[in-house]
Amino acid sequence: MVIIIGLTIFTLIASEDRPEAISGGKAENLAQKIYDATNKEAWDSLDYIRWTFRESNHYTWDRQQNLVEVVWDEYRVLLDPESVSGIAFKKGDQLKGEEEQRLLEEAFKLFCNDGFWMNAFTKLHDPGTNRGIHISENGDTSLLVTYTSGGVTPGDAYLWKVDDEGLPLSFKMWVSIIPVGGLEFTWEDWDTLYNGALIAQNHSSELLEVPITGIKSGPTLTSVGKNDTLFMPLEK
User: Which of 222, 58, 73 minimizes the C-alpha distance to 230?
Assistant: First the structure.
């Protein structure tokens, strides 16, 4: 009860309204500046990447075929995110029917969320996004990105703060799964991948830490520590 009361008070005190923003050329220029600072061109050409989200969910992503292995608890799923199809295992045994479909959908939700924390700055022009410039009372310029469709939580919005070069410093969130509007998370501890793309390895806020660990990237599956036949059952 004490925890619930404390969270309620925190929500009432800390919550912010979503800011107004103006769409147009300045917003598009700032989005491009973020792409340039994080080397989105290199990200788009990336072959394979592995990472762990908050020390619990583990991913290997074939970027060019858009196939992903999701491992958590006692489950392993080979997933095609575009069709939410694939193969699911529990303790090494392949599942079928409703249980398989349930795990495919769970893996898709995990991948959408955890993948966003890993590379949200490359998704500023995803289908269904709106971009606008917000200028604060002290004159700071930020980019507000609203996701009107797609993913698993349409309607979410993120206000990006960047440095002079366009490298993200933090974003504030207005999302359906968090009751605190405007909760701010840092984007820090940047790592450069094998082809020059940048990834932030840590995010922190007043409530929790969101670490991205175990990042490995490379031109082949074996270069990231996986068997090169991993995705053969799903190859398109």
Answer: 222
All residues at 6 or more sequence positions from 196 whose CB lies less than 8 Å from its CB, including other chains? 39, 42
Decide: helix, strand or coil at residue 217.
strand
User: How does pLDDT run across 165-176, given as a tens digit for each residue?
Assistant: 999 999 999 998
Burial profile 141-161: b = 16 or more Cβ within 10 angstroms, e = fewer = ebbbbbbeeebeeeebbbbbb
Distance CA 170, CA 185 (A): 5
Which two tokens mark 148? 């009107």
Predicted TM-score of the model (pTM): 0.89
Q: What is the pLDDT of residue 150?
A: 65
Q: Domains of the chain (ranges plus CATH)?
A: 19-228 (2.50.20)
Neighbour-count burial of 53, counting CB atoms closer than 10 A to its CB (0-12 exposed, 13-18 middle, 19+ buried)? buried
Encoded tokens for 193: 């991948």
User: Which parts of the chain are beta strand (E)?
Assistant: 48-53, 57-62, 67-72, 75-80, 85-90, 93-94, 129-135, 141-147, 157-162, 168-174, 183-186, 188-192, 198-204, 209-218
Q: 3-state SS of the chain: helix, strand, coil percent to 5? A: 25, 35, 35
Q: Pull the structure tokens for residue 98.
A: 């409703």
